[in-house]
Amino acid sequence: MAVYTDELGDDICGKIMDSSFGLKRICRQMGQPYSTVRLWIFKNHHGFADKYAHAKQMQAERLADEILEIADDASIDLPKDAIRRAGMRIESRKWLITNLATDKTAKQKDETKDQLMKITIKKAPRPQLPGNRAQDAAIQ
Protein backbone atom coordinates (compact mmCIF):
# COMPACT_ATOMS: atom_id res chain seq x y z
CA MET A 1 0.00 0.00 0.00
CA ALA A 2 1.36 3.41 -0.98
CA VAL A 3 2.02 6.03 1.66
CA TYR A 4 0.34 9.41 1.17
CA THR A 5 2.48 12.52 1.28
CA ASP A 6 1.48 16.08 0.43
CA GLU A 7 4.10 16.05 -2.34
CA LEU A 8 2.61 12.90 -3.88
CA GLY A 9 -0.92 14.35 -3.64
CA ASP A 10 0.28 17.55 -5.31
CA ASP A 11 2.00 15.55 -8.08
CA ILE A 12 -1.15 13.55 -8.78
CA CYS A 13 -3.31 16.68 -8.83
CA GLY A 14 -0.79 18.50 -11.02
CA LYS A 15 -0.92 15.73 -13.60
CA ILE A 16 -4.73 15.83 -13.53
CA MET A 17 -4.80 19.60 -14.09
CA ASP A 18 -2.28 19.45 -16.94
CA SER A 19 -3.89 16.65 -18.94
CA SER A 20 -7.16 15.21 -20.12
CA PHE A 21 -6.27 11.81 -18.63
CA GLY A 22 -8.31 10.07 -15.98
CA LEU A 23 -7.08 9.14 -12.53
CA LYS A 24 -6.59 5.47 -13.43
CA ARG A 25 -4.16 6.29 -16.24
CA ILE A 26 -2.30 8.83 -14.14
CA CYS A 27 -1.92 6.31 -11.29
CA ARG A 28 -0.60 3.73 -13.75
CA GLN A 29 1.92 6.24 -15.17
CA MET A 30 3.09 7.20 -11.67
CA GLY A 31 3.23 3.60 -10.40
CA GLN A 32 0.60 4.28 -7.73
CA PRO A 33 -2.18 1.83 -6.86
CA TYR A 34 -5.44 3.23 -8.22
CA SER A 35 -7.54 1.70 -5.44
CA THR A 36 -5.37 3.34 -2.77
CA VAL A 37 -5.56 6.76 -4.38
CA ARG A 38 -9.35 6.38 -4.67
CA LEU A 39 -9.43 5.54 -0.95
CA TRP A 40 -7.48 8.74 -0.17
CA ILE A 41 -10.14 10.68 -2.07
CA PHE A 42 -13.02 8.86 -0.40
CA LYS A 43 -11.63 9.43 3.11
CA ASN A 44 -10.35 12.95 2.29
CA HIS A 45 -6.99 11.77 3.60
CA HIS A 46 -5.00 14.89 4.65
CA GLY A 47 -7.41 17.03 2.60
CA PHE A 48 -6.62 15.14 -0.62
CA ALA A 49 -10.27 15.02 -1.74
CA ASP A 50 -10.39 18.82 -1.68
CA LYS A 51 -7.18 19.07 -3.75
CA TYR A 52 -8.52 16.43 -6.12
CA ALA A 53 -11.85 18.27 -6.60
CA HIS A 54 -9.96 21.48 -7.38
CA ALA A 55 -7.70 19.64 -9.84
CA LYS A 56 -10.73 18.16 -11.63
CA GLN A 57 -12.30 21.63 -11.91
CA MET A 58 -9.06 22.93 -13.42
CA GLN A 59 -9.03 19.95 -15.80
CA ALA A 60 -12.57 20.82 -16.92
CA GLU A 61 -11.43 24.38 -17.66
CA ARG A 62 -8.47 23.01 -19.63
CA LEU A 63 -10.83 20.85 -21.68
CA ALA A 64 -13.04 23.88 -22.37
CA ASP A 65 -9.96 25.74 -23.63
CA GLU A 66 -9.14 22.77 -25.87
CA ILE A 67 -12.67 22.84 -27.29
CA LEU A 68 -12.20 26.48 -28.26
CA GLU A 69 -8.82 25.78 -29.87
CA ILE A 70 -10.24 22.89 -31.89
CA ALA A 71 -13.36 24.81 -32.93
CA ASP A 72 -11.42 27.98 -33.78
CA ASP A 73 -8.89 26.20 -35.99
CA ALA A 74 -8.29 28.65 -38.80
CA SER A 75 -7.68 25.98 -41.45
CA ILE A 76 -10.18 26.81 -44.16
CA ASP A 77 -10.15 23.73 -46.37
CA LEU A 78 -10.05 20.80 -43.99
CA PRO A 79 -10.74 17.36 -45.41
CA LYS A 80 -14.01 15.78 -44.28
CA ASP A 81 -12.14 13.26 -42.13
CA ALA A 82 -10.36 16.06 -40.25
CA ILE A 83 -13.64 17.89 -39.67
CA ARG A 84 -15.27 14.67 -38.43
CA ARG A 85 -12.32 14.02 -36.11
CA ALA A 86 -12.43 17.59 -34.76
CA GLY A 87 -16.14 17.11 -34.08
CA MET A 88 -15.43 13.87 -32.18
CA ARG A 89 -12.69 15.59 -30.16
CA ILE A 90 -15.06 18.39 -29.22
CA GLU A 91 -17.91 16.03 -28.32
CA SER A 92 -15.67 13.88 -26.11
CA ARG A 93 -14.39 16.95 -24.28
CA LYS A 94 -17.93 18.26 -23.80
CA TRP A 95 -18.89 14.92 -22.29
CA LEU A 96 -15.87 14.97 -19.99
CA ILE A 97 -16.56 18.50 -18.80
CA THR A 98 -20.15 17.59 -17.97
CA ASN A 99 -19.07 14.49 -16.07
CA LEU A 100 -16.04 16.00 -14.33
CA ALA A 101 -18.23 18.25 -12.24
CA THR A 102 -17.91 16.14 -9.11
CA ASP A 103 -19.55 18.70 -6.83
CA LYS A 104 -22.47 19.62 -9.08
CA THR A 105 -26.02 18.46 -8.63
CA ALA A 106 -27.79 16.56 -11.40
CA LYS A 107 -29.70 19.73 -12.32
CA GLN A 108 -26.48 21.75 -12.64
CA LYS A 109 -24.93 18.97 -14.76
CA ASP A 110 -27.98 19.08 -17.08
CA GLU A 111 -27.66 22.86 -17.40
CA THR A 112 -23.94 22.56 -18.18
CA LYS A 113 -24.69 19.86 -20.76
CA ASP A 114 -27.37 22.06 -22.38
CA GLN A 115 -24.90 24.95 -22.64
CA LEU A 116 -22.20 22.75 -24.15
CA MET A 117 -24.59 21.25 -26.70
CA LYS A 118 -25.06 24.75 -28.15
CA ILE A 119 -21.44 24.72 -29.35
CA THR A 120 -21.34 23.79 -33.03
CA ILE A 121 -18.69 23.65 -35.70
CA LYS A 122 -19.30 26.01 -38.58
CA LYS A 123 -17.20 26.32 -41.69
CA ALA A 124 -15.77 29.82 -41.97
CA PRO A 125 -16.88 31.77 -45.05
CA ARG A 126 -14.27 32.18 -47.75
CA PRO A 127 -12.75 35.65 -47.72
CA GLN A 128 -13.68 37.84 -50.66
CA LEU A 129 -10.63 38.68 -52.74
CA PRO A 130 -10.30 42.29 -53.91
CA GLY A 131 -10.43 42.97 -57.61
CA ASN A 132 -13.20 40.59 -58.65
CA ARG A 133 -15.57 43.23 -60.02
CA ALA A 134 -18.19 40.79 -61.29
CA GLN A 135 -18.51 39.30 -57.83
CA ASP A 136 -18.46 42.80 -56.24
CA ALA A 137 -21.32 43.91 -58.49
CA ALA A 138 -23.34 40.80 -57.69
CA ILE A 139 -23.05 41.54 -53.96
CA GLN A 140 -24.30 45.12 -54.31
What is the fold's blueprint, element by element?
Elements: H1 6-17, H2 23-30, H3 34-42, H4 48-71, H5 80-100, H6 106-117, H7 133-139
Helix pairs in contact: 1-4, 4-5, 5-6
Brief sketch in words of this structure:
The chain is mainly α and 140 residues long. The chain contains 7 helices and no strands. The relative contact order is 0.10.
Helical region count?
7
Number of domains: 1
- Low-confidence residue ranges: 134-140
Distance between the termini: 75 Å
What's the β-strand tally?
A: 0
> Which range does the strand content fall in?
under 5%
Q: What characterizes the major β-sheet?
A: none
Q: Give the class-level CATH name.
A: Mainly Alpha
Characterize the overall form: elongated
Give the SSE order as H and E letters: HHHHHHH
Say what oligomer this is: single chain
Query: Which structural class should the secondary elements be placed in?
Result: mainly alpha
CATH superfamily: Homeodomain-like
Percent range of helical residues:
55-70%
CATH topology, by name, is Arc Repressor Mutant, subunit A
Rg computed from alpha carbons, rounded to a whole number of angstroms: 21 Å
Structural key phrases:
mainly alpha, 66% helix, 140 residues, Arc Repressor Mutant, subunit A
Structural overview:
With 140 residues, the chain is mainly α. Helix content is 66%, strand content 0%. The protein contains 7 helices and no strands. It has helices spanning 6-17, 23-30, 34-42, 48-71, 80-100, 106-117, 133-139. It starts with 5 loop residues before the first helix and ends with a helix. 14% of the residues are buried. Mean pLDDT is 78; it is low at 134-140.
